[in-house]
Inverse folding.
């Protein structure tokens, strides 16, 4: 089968950063689905792994943590899917990724693709939807019905995770949504998705919230550049608030949060699959719930660019774009 992989971690400018190769097709066992991949999207985790993680014993490592495809074979313990089902998922960090024609994925982290979306439209959503859902409802424990004027600040609202976070908040909660974006194009984007207010994250955030006369956010979700905004977050968050992040600052000093008794939550959507937690199947459940919201017209795809085929040349180009930190929404590739 065709795949795009690498053998040594390094910069995207290296000729060996991503290579078109042929691999043997894997075999489904246990809870595994063997999926023929139709479309994939690219996430920051792809670039982080490629730069920092080399496979052992000179093996090939295949990236890709978002996919839509057709179930081609199933393991003997599979109970929720059958051959021919069209599925979507974000996969597992400790297994081969979706940048290949065939991929094994555990059914407990797989959902049924929304019927109303094309494969390319659906491929933009799984990883970001899982990340946003787990942060909002599992980590920050955002209530579906909060007291009036309860606010949440989403830093990096125009990115992949921010884009779906805003939509989930708009459709499933009554919170006032404050999002950040720095360019006119991205500010319009987050407004279209449902943000009630938009701040420029190139300027001090606390001062902007005060200027607007808004209630101090009880919840703050930082999707990017947390190290640059931490002092501002400490200043603007409400006492006894909840703060969550998903990026990887080199250092994170949370001591300043003590005075306000702020709780800190670090979301990693691969935790359930890495540790095979008892509630691992919750990812399947939430993907099916998001699929339902999409088919009801309440959530829209966040794809902003689609290209074909899935190959090393195209993946390298979009890895560079992701690393620039200027991506709006999600980039999707389709077909081999």
């Amino acid at each position: 089968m065709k795949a795009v992989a690498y053998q040594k971690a390094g910069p995207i400018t290296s000729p060996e950063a991503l290579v078109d190769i042929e691999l043997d097709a894997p075999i489904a066992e246990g809870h595994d689905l063997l999926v023929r991949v139709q479309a994939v999207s690219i996430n920051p985790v792809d670039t982080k792994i490629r730069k920092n993680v080399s496979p052992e014993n000179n093996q090939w490592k295949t990236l890709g943590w978002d996919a839509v495809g057709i179930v081609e074979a199933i393991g003997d313990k599979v109970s929720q899917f059958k051959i021919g089902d069209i599925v979507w998922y974000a996969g597992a960090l400790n297994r081969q990724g979706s940048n290949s024609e065939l991929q094994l994925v555990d059914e407990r982290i797989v959902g049924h693709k929304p019927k109303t979306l094309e494969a390319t439209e659906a491929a933009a959503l799984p990883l970001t939807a899982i990340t946003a859902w787990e942060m909002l409802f599992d980590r920050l424990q955002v209530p579906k019905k909060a007291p009036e004027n309860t606010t949440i600040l989403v830093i990096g609202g125009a990115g992949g995770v921010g884009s779906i976070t805003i939509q989930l908040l708009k459709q499933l909660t009554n919170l006032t949504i404050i999002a950040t974006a720095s360019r006119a194009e991205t500010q319009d984007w987050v407004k279209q998705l449902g943000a009630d207010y938009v701040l420029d994250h190139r300027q001090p955030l606390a001062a902007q919230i005060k200027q607007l006369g808004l209630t101090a956010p009880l919840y703050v979700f930082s999707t990017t550049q947390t190290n640059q905004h931490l002092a501002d977050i400490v200043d603007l968050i409400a006492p006894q608030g909840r703060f969550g992040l998903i990026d990887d600052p080199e250092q994170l000093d949370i001591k300043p949060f003590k005075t306000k008794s702020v709780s800190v939550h670090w979301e990693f959507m691969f935790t359930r699959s890495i540790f095979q937690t008892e509630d691992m199947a919750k990812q399947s459940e939430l993907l099916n719930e998001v699929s339902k919201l999409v088919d009801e017209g309440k959530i829209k795809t966040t794809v902003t660019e689609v290209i074909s085929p899935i190959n090393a040349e195209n993946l390298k180009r979009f890895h560079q774009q992701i690393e620039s930190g200027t991506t709006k929404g999600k980039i999707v590739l389709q077909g081999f």
